[in-house]
Amino acid sequence: MKRRDFIKNTAASSAFLTLGGLSLSSFATSEMKKITILHTNDVHSYIDPFPKDHPRNPNMGGVARRAALIESIRKENPNVVLLDAGDIFQGTPYFNYYGGELEFKLMSMMKYDVATMGNHDFDNGIEGFLAQLPHAKFEFVSSNYDFTNTALNGFVKPYTILKVDGIKIGVFGLGVILDGLVDKKNYKETVYNNPIEIATDMSKTLRHAEKCDLVICLSHLGYKYKEDPNRVCDTILAQKTKDIDLIIGGHSHTFLDQPVVAKNLEGKEVLINQVGCYGLNLGQIDFYLTSDKKIASQGKSIIV
After folding, report:
1. Which of 37, 45, 102, 142 could disulfide-pair with 91, CB 3.0 to 4.6 Å?
2. What's the CA dihedral at 7, 12, 18, 22 to 10 degrees?
3. Going by C-beta distance under 8 Å and a sequence separation of 6 or more, which residues neighbour residue 20?
């Protein structure tokens, strides 16, 4: 992408957001650290860019461009965390042929830190996913899928904690209900637990027991469902929980130009973001934290 187009695309979709009514000017007299969260979701094995004659996404996307974009952001800010909200697998012949090996190897080369599991990540079964895990040099988290009686027991954590420039970042994962979406033989004895209840426990643990400065949920629940407004989704998750700073979504392939601000149980602001599908966009959320842990944020969606 040409520099002029890059600037045009990022500027058009950027927005300044605040948490707790704070703005960056509030931090003028405090030491401030910047943490950049980059994220993807529902890439679905799209390794190559779309063809130049594609009617909707001509010459867009592709792992090579995403890798170059991520690298350029890392050069500007060393405090980068790279996350994925699931459905890494299924969508192109690369998955049918390599079974996920290529996807994990490329994500490892791009230095992803943490990912969660989407429903399509079960498409080769529990054993198929496990067989590819040695190629993933990053962690998988899922707190509402109980893998105790499966081959994945011990390989997927409920949460993980990253330490970046003295900042503790807690990351946990939530998955969509598998019954009706995934063949039972593929997920076997995996137990699905209520995402709201699990998120309440996870966020409390990370914020208060683990003393995390930022709490991030990697959600493969979907952004919202107009046809079923009571179905558990990211907007409901934000409203019915507390202690979460950022929900990075997946599953519904929702293209948000910028993060949405929701209010949690305590009336505090939570950011929700999702960047569509197929690796077309890269999400970027910049958090600014002071020594007394006041937070402000700035977010955008970047066209790859």
Report:
1. 45
2. 70
3. 268, 269, 294, 295
Measured between alpha carbons, how far is residue 124 from residues 88, 97, 187, 192, 210 in Å?
12, 12, 9, 19, 35
Contacts of 42 (CB under 8 A, 6+ apart): 85, 86, 87, 118, 250, 251, 253, 276, 277, 278
How do the residues of the chain divide into helix, strand and coil, expressed in percent and rounded to 5?
25, 30, 45
Q: What is the pTM of this model?
A: 0.91
Of 239, 216, 200, nearest in space to 295 by CA: 216
Specify the 3-state DSSP secondary structure of 196: helix
Q: pLDDT, tens digit, for every residue of 113-129?
A: 999 999 999 999 999 99
pLDDT of residue 31: 81
How far is C-alpha 267 from the geometric centre of its chain's CA atoms?
A: 23
Q: Is 122 helix (H, G, I), strand (E, B) or coil?
A: helix
Tokens describing residue 27: 């931090």
The pLDDT tens digits for 63-109 are: 999 999 999 999 999 999 999 999 999 999 999 999 999 999 999 99
- Work out the widest C-alpha separation in the chain, in whole angstroms: 58
- Residue 123 gets which letter from DSSP? T
Extended strands (E) in 186-226: 191-192, 214-220
Residue 236: both structure tokens together: 């409901």
Per-residue DSSP letters for 130-185? Answer: HHHGGG--SEEB-SSEE-TTSTTTTTSBSEEEEEETTEEEEEEEEE---BTTB-HH
Q: What DSSP string runs through 239-289?
A: HT--S--EEE--SS--B-SSPEEEE-TTS-EEEEE-B-STT-EEEEEEEEE
Q: Token pair for residue 214?
A: 């930022």
